[in-house]
Amino acid sequence: MEALGECIELRREREGATIASEDFAVWWAGGRHELEERRALENYFFNDPEFDDAVHPSCMSYKQRYEHALTKGTKFLAKLREWQRSRRAQQPKGKEEHELEGAEDSVNIKLLYDYRMLLSGPVGTALFQQSFPLRLHFSMFLPTLLSQGNAEQQRRWVGRAWRLDGIVGTYAQTELGHGSYIRGLETRADYDAEREQFVLNTPTLSAYKWWPGGLGQTANMVVVLAQLYIRGKHHGLQQFLVRIRDEQTHEPLPGIDVGDIGPKLGANGVNNGFLGFRNVRIPRDQMLMKNAQVLADGRFVQAAQPLLVYGTMVFVRVMIVRDVMFGLLQAATIATRYSLVRRQSPIEPNAPEPQILDHVTQQAKILPQIARGICYRLAADVLWAIYQRVMQQLEAAGPNNSNGGRELPELHALSCCLKAVCTEGAAEGIDVLRKACGGHGYMSSANFDSIQGLASAAFTYEGEHTVLLLQTARFLLRQHLDALKRKVLPASVTYLRNASPLSWSDNLLENVARALEISAAAQLREAWQWQQEQRQHGKHTEQQANNLSGRRLTAAATLHGHAYLARNAIKQLEQLRRNVQPALYELLQQLVELFVLHTFLRQLGAVLKWNRNGISSKQLQQLEQRYEQLLGALRPNALALVDGFDFHDRVLGSTLGCWDGRVYERLMAEARRNPLNQEAVNSSYHTHLQPLFRCKL
Amino acid sequence: MEALGECIELRREREGATIASEDFAVWWAGGRHELEERRALENYFFNDPEFDDAVHPSCMSYKQRYEHALTKGTKFLAKLREWQRSRRAQQPKGKEEHELEGAEDSVNIKLLYDYRMLLSGPVGTALFQQSFPLRLHFSMFLPTLLSQGNAEQQRRWVGRAWRLDGIVGTYAQTELGHGSYIRGLETRADYDAEREQFVLNTPTLSAYKWWPGGLGQTANMVVVLAQLYIRGKHHGLQQFLVRIRDEQTHEPLPGIDVGDIGPKLGANGVNNGFLGFRNVRIPRDQMLMKNAQVLADGRFVQAAQPLLVYGTMVFVRVMIVRDVMFGLLQAATIATRYSLVRRQSPIEPNAPEPQILDHVTQQAKILPQIARGICYRLAADVLWAIYQRVMQQLEAAGPNNSNGGRELPELHALSCCLKAVCTEGAAEGIDVLRKACGGHGYMSSANFDSIQGLASAAFTYEGEHTVLLLQTARFLLRQHLDALKRKVLPASVTYLRNASPLSWSDNLLENVARALEISAAAQLREAWQWQQEQRQHGKHTEQQANNLSGRRLTAAATLHGHAYLARNAIKQLEQLRRNVQPALYELLQQLVELFVLHTFLRQLGAVLKWNRNGISSKQLQQLEQRYEQLLGALRPNALALVDGFDFHDRVLGSTLGCWDGRVYERLMAEARRNPLNQEAVNSSYHTHLQPLFRCKL
Question: Which residues does the record give as FAD binding sites (chains A, B) (predicted)?
């Protein structure tokens, strides 16, 4: 589309803001250097016409979509390596050089983490709004080789995989019949000591691997999670490296039944696949043997339980909190800009129609989502810091010393809880934002479908929502019992020891945070009592009692998550007071307050249930008023704020959300290039509609 | 897929149920005859292999999808007429014959309403999970000709349109820049008295018509809503019948700019289009002149304000409540069956994995949605009865007598409110149900995407959610003032006159319904007071005060909707006691109770806010226990219940939801027939992946 420049509505908004977007952008990016680096990388890709789509992917068939994503994906990886090489050449030799090198012996977890950020960050999002088939090679296959392979295995495979030297892989865990409960997986690997091979089989239909990204038509190697059997004896789940397609012809190898699982609500570029084995043999050295070995004669040797495996799971969840926060703020940016361009329904009888963001009902839909995204980010940053600290402790302590993992249970619980609560909150927020854009929000060209599709997937993958909440609740119950014993509790749950009821002070935020904590603690106590009651007189077993308390336990875990998010936002704001300029601080203060009050109002039922006498009607009314005041106070800076997230138009990928606000022009331009509109009369008219006209109904 | 018969899990469930599905089915269908008629119609279509899809539509490109829907749509209409003719031949001559005839002079609104039910009912849903391009011809174009055309216009156009004799039409109201606020529409029609023609123009980009179903490539005539100007003088919005494509060649006519608006979150079979006019001339007699005429010399004659137009809008909203209820129960059926086939996570340590519906957390997700769908149906039936009564009153009173519309404001408010509250509730419920199916719920072959897509569209079309709530609130405010004046109030709002606080009795349902009504009334009063406060001392104008109260007003309208739904369900249950068998009544009693408690718990914040002293902690605890008891009580009949909705497998269109429970077989079968899986090696391997292997990254 021809550049028309900023529309008048957005220009006026930008002129009227009291904050400088660029200041916000620098803070948000984590510094001037980080911001410029990202912008440089974006320009490097987005100025290259190779990466423009001739047809919008939503118009393509599923098969075309795959071919498009694979083709573009290979170009993306190649150009990304070029970028890294050029960066290396520019930079003075130093500490980072080695990492950027990516030579066989320098491929490490840290490098892969950084690489994941590149693949899933702004550029990856912009180029692949529904992801692409080569991502899991870097985000799961390679990290698994590194963390689960022994030295010899790493030497043999990691370098080749890093260079895509005849190897493109994925990670196959979930089966058609089993997800969360991985002990139930059915794929089996039987050791044949005579030939020193494992024999892989898919004993039932439900044992088919199902979901791995890139598995359908792309990967030629797979790390497979399977039940190990040696002479009929079961040795738990182990990981096996299996070639599934011929390195030269790419044909599936004998005994391999592989394909794509088909279209989904979103993430349609991923090439998720299914995989069945029929007597597929692999050499003994293709079981990943860092933590357990099968010796040639069939003896099984188990090393210490690998705490670091646990770490990977935690890592992925920490990343997901970031991912969904990113999606929520993409959606918020789109909806904010659209709400400033769209005019509808006069407020005053003879006045022109206002920008819809001037309607308080619209502000109430959009502004809290911006605040939410920012406060999720504040939590994700803390979670990431804890994660790094715990990993350092673990590494320092060595593999056999579990003291290093002192904070691990809390980290695990917190990552479960925030993954569950934030994916739910983000998905809900994205839905609110989409609906706030009315009919146009429903268009694929607005891109809410891709954004929502990814957030919806995150709700389930890497830990189903309810399962994670129940895991959190188990941790909380242990803390509750420790609290009864007056033990010292981890930082995130110290409030469980505070039994004093709510006493409303002048500090509104403190009141609200405390009310949420009291609710979480009380709900937990109630769930625990209910559980105990179910077990009395031998009525139910412990497990049945757990099941019967399920609703109450998940409610407690959810409240804990909300209380944590609110408390953390307040704490981080305190830190920010010293680190950012006053104008920016004031804005962040408003946003944190809005988030905390929004959380409170959304949990009002639980809060009033558990703080019956702590909050008067009048205090509630004042809180409502303050909430509406904040909406009004944030309104003039809404655009400057979302500008400050600095999403490139390509990252938003939305006809409604571009920087220039040319909403209607873009909707129309996108409609016109639809292949369906390239011919004046569709062939089906001649074959079906005209004959119907002739014979009449 | 080969028929394998019912899986063991579902067989056991069916054997263990305490109700007979068939009894439920008869009641649900409205009688034995209705049930058999529907089944006969379904078999008539579903046994015809012409209507099987070789490829799942979700695998098709957007263009293929259109061609597929159009092709199938023409076959569907032809076969449907055949069915009607054969039915007519079988039936004894009588009253209904005339209506089934569909000759020119017998096409009437009633016939079209019935026809809409056929097109949008189970068969239409089964064949077109994302709708089809010919629907608006019958659901909007023809009804508009009938209700807005004068006798001469009807004679000329209606019969041809009914027979699709060279005419396929749609209805074009919404524009790129205007939806809810129709007075803001910009398309204009200028009368040229000299040539006795109207000249249609699209003055700006935002004036382009945008959204009409079937407009893109299908319709050749359109009823267009445009601003009428005669000698430069504005005469409001009028409707014009405009030919846009040549009857023979189907080419767009000169001055017509028409096309498809592109892919959406759902409803991708509709062929929604855009349309612009550039000096398009139509003869004077193509303005629809039932209610307003332009005489040859340019004189404008306005008849009485047409109340029946209002009626059409109400009718559509009543239908939407039905549509989303239907979608919600499709989703509930799918999720229930899946939850009985899927096994996961042992409850007892060494026991086999249970059906996931045995987890209380899963029951809490699914069973309330079934109850909700049934209670939405109870409300839709009442709404439909009121609608018919009001229309009869209006017709009896004649066009110039507004007394006939005594109940119209209440009907209008109720239809606005329930459309808003039920589309939101259904969409939310469908989302919960999809997520309750974990990863597999995310597959397109599970069909939640189509179901959710249609429900999401309904949230916005025919009255945007917030706009409808504000309209409801305006009605409620008038009733509030009438209540202060001790006037008699319409039935649905009599509770506004009851000022007594909640007094908790033994009748739990009554307590809950009353608590919801008190909350709605109190929230309304608060919104009104806030509005008045904003106007005091001339701080704000009335309109600004309305805007500033927007959040509170929509909250009041929402609570009113919930209170109405709960109260209505209780009332209808009372009626059912006399009309259904005891076993069925008991089941319905459990369901109504579950719905009412579910509504209460979801509105807990508002309820406790406005009934601070009316509910003790202990009463709340008992209510929670009762809620969980109901889940347990309904669990054994869950399958029998959803079987009783009698959705044909084709109507559900879901790999997860079929009657036989062969979930994994169907998921795999659907994956295997994906076109992407028809070749062992995709071409992109040779063009892109292999070259990358060779040059290495």
Answer: 174, 213
B241, B273, B307 — which closes off a domain?
B307
Nearest-Cα residue of chain A relative to residue B68:
A684
C-alpha span between B509 and B218 (Å, rounded): 51
**B19 within domain boundaries:** no
Q: How far is the alpha carbon of B497 from chain A, nearest alpha carbon, in Å?
A: 23
Q: What percent of chain A has pLDDT over 90?
A: 84
A190: domain CATH number is 2.40.110.10
Closest CA relative to residue A154, chosen from A214, A114, A108, A116: A108
Can you give the residue range of the structural domain that contains A292?
166-305
Q: Could you report the per-residue pLDDT of B532-562, keeping only the tens digit for each?
A: 999 998 889 999 999 999 999 999 999 999 9
Closest CA to A631 of A661, A601, A654: A601
Tell me the average pLDDT of chain B.
93
Q: What is the largest CA-CA distance in chain B?
A: 91
Distance from the Cα of B181 to chain A's closest Cα (Å) equals: 6
Q: How confident is the model at residue A93 (pLDDT cuts 50, 70, 90)?
A: low
The whole-angstrom separation of Cα A635 and Cα A361 is 12
Q: In what order do the strands lie in the sheet with B273-277?
A: B209-210, B273-277, B256-260
In a domain, A337, yes or no: no
Under an 8 A CB cutoff, do A344 and B692 touch? Answer: no
Instruction: Say if residue A100's pLDDT is above 50.
Output: no
Contact criterion met (CB < 8 Å) for A164 and B672: no
Q: A interface mutation test: which of B74, B530, B624 has the most A CBs within 10 A? A: B74
CATH code: domain of residue B609: 1.20.140.10
pTM for the model stands at: 0.97
ipTM score above 0.90: yes
| Residue B100 confidence class, pLDDT cut points 50, 70, 90 | very low
Give the pLDDT confidence of B663-694 residue by residue, as tens digits: 999 999 999 999 999 999 999 999 999 999 99
Residue type, A552: R
Domain count, chain B: 2
Cα nearest neighbour of B526 on chain A: A621
Name every chain A residue with its beta carbon within 8 A of the beta carbon of B449.
264-265
Q: Do A179 and B348 touch (CB under 8 A)?
A: no
**How far is residue B697's CA from residue B689's CA, in Å, rounded to a whole number?**
11
- With beta carbons under 8 A apart, name residues in chain A contacting B548: 360, 628
Closest A-chain CA to B246: A681
Helix (H/G/I), strand (E/B), else coil: A42: helix
Q: Tell me which chain B residues have a C-beta less than 8 angstroms from the C-beta of A541.
A: 348
